[in-house]
Amino acid sequence: MNDAAVLAIIVAVRGLVPLLIFRWNLAGALLAIAADGSDAIIQDVLGAEPLRGWYHEFDKIFDTYYLGIELWVALRWGDPIARWMLAGLFALRLLGVAVFEITEAREVILFTPNVFENYYLVLAGLRSIRPGYRLHGWGEAVLWLAAVTPPKVLQEYVMHYRAAQTWHFVRDEIFTPWN
Amino acid sequence: MTGEAPKWRERLRRALVVAAVAAVVYVPGAVTLWMLLAGRA
Fold first, then answer.
1. Which of these, A88, A109, A111, A130, is most buried using a 10 Å CB contact count?
2. Which residues contact A48 (CB under 8 A, 6 or more apart)?
3. How far is B1 from chain A, CA to nearest CA, in Å?
4. What is the DSSP string of chain A?
5. ipTM of the complex model
6. Do residues A155 and B34 make contact, with C-beta atoms less than 8 angstroms apart?
7. B18, B26, B33 ranked by CB distance to A125: nearest
8. What pTM did the predictor assign?
9. Min Cα–Cα distance to chain A from B4, Å
């Protein structure tokens, strides 16, 4: 398949799937993550690389798009502490992405990890189990933050600071370990 | 009896929500830790 067709498929997937977040706060977010990871797989499977050379810029734009939808949704949950936490974490991430794009210093991404996403998922999960769930205080808010930050920092370190190809590792070690 | 099925179905749904969120939050970190330990990062 040619580059333009593959690019159209990737843009359609990454542009449309996050819209599900408006209807299904948690399931839509999980599907948006799957869509986020799908671009490298789509390129691999269809044998074209339209994102070669500008993948990070493309990825950051669509990441910000779906995380922005999550923030939009969360601001309407009627949970003041969650609102402040998520707005702060989103702003931190946005600042990190902007500074990284200007300076190209990978350390910036390491110090501004995408904790927003994990935090949103936990709260969306809690609200899915107990509709109308609200954080009971800043203590609980900080506890959840402490629970979801370490795995994301590790992920940012390997994927963005060390620039390791996670998908290739998963493909080689988990999906086709016999190769 | 009619109330039983929705109850276990709701429990299953809640368990799936917890499992899905835990997997998405922790599995990527675990995989990247594995990459580090395997010298692939």
1. A109
2. A1, A2, A3, A5, A6
3. 23
4. --HHHHHHHHHHHHHHGGGHHHH-HHHHHHHHHHHHHHHHHHHHHHT--TTTTTHHHHHHHHHHHHHHHHHHHHTTSS-HHHHHHHHHHHHHHHHHHHHHHHH--THHHHHS--HHHHHHHHHHHHHHHSTT----SHHHHHHHHHHHHHHHHHHHIIIIIS---HHHHHIIIII-TT-
5. 0.82
6. no
7. B18
8. 0.87
9. 18
Residues A89, A90, A94: CA angle, nearest 5 degrees: 120
DSSP B39: T
Instruction: For chain A, give the number of residues.
Output: 179
Q: Would the CA dihedral through A150, A155, A160, A163 be positive or negative?
A: positive
Chain B interface includes A37 (CB < 8 A): no
Structure tokens at A39: 């671009």
The tens place of each residue's pLDDT in chain A, 179 residues long, gives: 788 888 999 999 999 999 999 999 999 999 999 999 888 888 888 888 888 888 888 888 999 999 999 999 999 999 999 999 999 999 999 999 899 889 988 888 888 999 999 999 999 999 999 999 999 999 999 999 999 999 999 988 888 777 777 777 787 777 777 76
